[in-house]
Amino acid sequence: MKDTWDKLMDLREHPELADTPGYELETLLREGDPVMGFLLLAGHPDFEPPKDWWDALRRRADLPWARLLAARPQFEEHCFWESVSRGELVTLAFLAPELFARRFPEGRWHDLYAFLTPLELAGVLRDAPQAAEVFDMEDVREKLAPDRWLAVLADRPELEKHFDWSSVENRPSVYWDTLLRRQPQFADHCDFAQLRSFQIRRILLRQPRLRDRCDWSRLTPGDREKLEAKGIRP
């Protein structure tokens, strides 16, 4: 049986399922991850959550307000600005500059940039890759660890031109599977002999074309069994 997360993912791809048995929108929004709820609402303008759903999020500082408001500016009335993170505010300045200027007429994203954590900076690049055209990318390269770059490239492969692959080649990373599941074209930069069993399984379940690159001796019996159940073998 699918859990709430999976059903919210289904609705992002198939909004026509909303309010069919098992896919009651109000129930899924109440029970599901609010971040997933935000992403769902951003992509489907016909969806309208109950007002108390917004109220329950008042203290959440981890919500993707920039993506939501850029896509659905009418939801501004539900935004608790005191809880919006500085990373989201910088992202909003790029995704919805008119809204940012109206809300913060004396503010500039430059004033917040210096205070962004590496995680927030990576989030801005992921959600607003156009920021790379005005950021000091030398400074960004110093602030972002190579592993963090792999996570950014998983969503924004076009930012590869700003990344030095030599910083990650021939070394393990917990983000190789995140990257290669989405961007298999970067496989030449990965030393597959250093991948852990779960990483190999996750990559091959999404990208079986990479099977010949993997060191199958590193697989646990359980991971090999899961792959073979999907018809993926050496």
What does this entry look like structurally?
- The protein has about 230 residues and is mainly alpha-helical.
- The protein is about 50% helix and about 0% strand.
- The protein is built from 14 helices and no strands.
- It has helices at about 5-15, 25-30, 35-45, 50-55, 65-70, 85-95, 95-105, 110-115, 120-125, 135-145, 145-155, 175-180, 195-205, 220-230.
- α3 (about 35-45) runs parallel beside α5.
- The protein is flat and about 55 Å long.
- The model has no long low-confidence stretch (mean pLDDT about 95).
What are the main properties of this structure?
234 residues; 14 helices; single chain; mainly alpha; flat
What is the H/E order? HHHHHHHHHHHHHH
Query: Any idea what the shape is?
Result: flat
> How is the main sheet built?
none
What is the residue-mean pLDDT, rounded to a whole number? 94
Oligomeric organization of the protein chains? single chain
Class derived from helix and strand content: mainly alpha
- What share of the residues does DSSP label as strand, in percent? under 5%
> Percentage of helical residues?
40-55%
| Rg over CA atoms | 20 Å
* Parts with pLDDT < 50 across at least 5 consecutive residues: none
Count up the helices.
14
- Ends apart, CA distance between termini: 31 Å
